[in-house]
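To close the chapter, one final illustration. This time we ask the reader to focus less on the individual chains and more on the assembly as a whole: which components sit near each other, and how the overall shape emerges from the parts.
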Amino acid sequence: MNCSDIENLLPRYHEDELDADDRRRVDSHVADCVNCRESLAFFAALETSLSERRALRPAATRTAARVIGRLGLRQRSFVLRSLFNAPGLASVTLIVVGVFLLLIKNPFVELPAVLSRMGDWFSLGLSPKLASWLNEIAQVSGDGEWMLIGLYLGVFALIMLMGSWMVLRFVRD
Amino acid sequence: MEEKRFQTEGDSSLVADSIRGNEKAFRELIERYQPMAFSVIRGVLGDREDAEDVLQNVFIKVYKGLRGFRGDAKFSTWVYRIARNEAVNAARKTVLSGPPADEVDLAAPERSRPDQQYRDKDQREYLERCLGELEENYRVVLELRYMGEMSYQEISDATELPIGTVKTYIHRAKLELKRVMTRRSLAGEHRPE
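The assembled structure is written out below.
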């Protein structure tokens, strides 16, 4: 092998990319050839210089912070993240409905009365259409006890369902 | 707890979480692919002050395009393409608006001796000038290998070049660098020791 053949192998020497035979050829050649020995030293130094340029790379955390800032993304707390999605909002709505129903001590008697009272408030000129709709519901709920029991059970089941979904989401995150 | 989970999470899962608005998942994706994107930008643009701005633009484009990422290609390939396109566009803009400042003040790492700082800076600037003379394809692959600390396989995945071609490019780039440095030295340019 002449110097030109050896020179072609040298860039691979320091990356351990030469097979055993080529490596032996290089070793025996550079032992006797000053020029190729200097070339080998050059490639060793080049390897170091190229690796040291990593210091020029900006910190990845800094890039991430700037990009997130420019995009206006903010990490919301778990509570907000759980609430600000469709199932979260549905859960909250159902909980509010459930609490409203539970606050009425005797729904079979009081719910129609409450709805009727609300209908009266709206009939004071604010929204006659809503008032008549509420009065209609009051009439129906006053007549149908089983409908209310079904409503209770449905609401309870949905609250449980959404609650378990939120717990699962929390565990996953 | 969440950060640690994301560090071991696969790209597709991080993409899905990022689309759902999870900022920490997207942060992890940026930190994972920032070295590669920066290497590509350096490979195309060379040593330029605006490389970091271009880098940020790349990840803004990545975020905006997440919903369109169908997973046909690897995520690294997709980010590589965006980074390369963004760098090429930045290079074109420069051609239209005039060249950037030639000399860039490279931030030298903290050292105790000032003369050491100057020597390191000279060496780096000399190397940057020589790198600037390489063919772009060679330079990009060389940057991915050394600046991005990527394996041959990772470079091959991102660039979609066969692994043999990646090795050949790196090999040729080093030989070419030696030729450039020899030519400069024959032309009388002092190579900092």
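The radius of gyration of chain A is 39 Å. The interface with chain B takes residues 7-8, 11-12, 15, 17, 39, 42-43, 46, 49-58, 60-61, 63-64, 66-68, 70-71, 73-75, 81, 173 of chain A (CB under 8 Å). With these observations in hand, you are ready for the problems at the end of the chapter.
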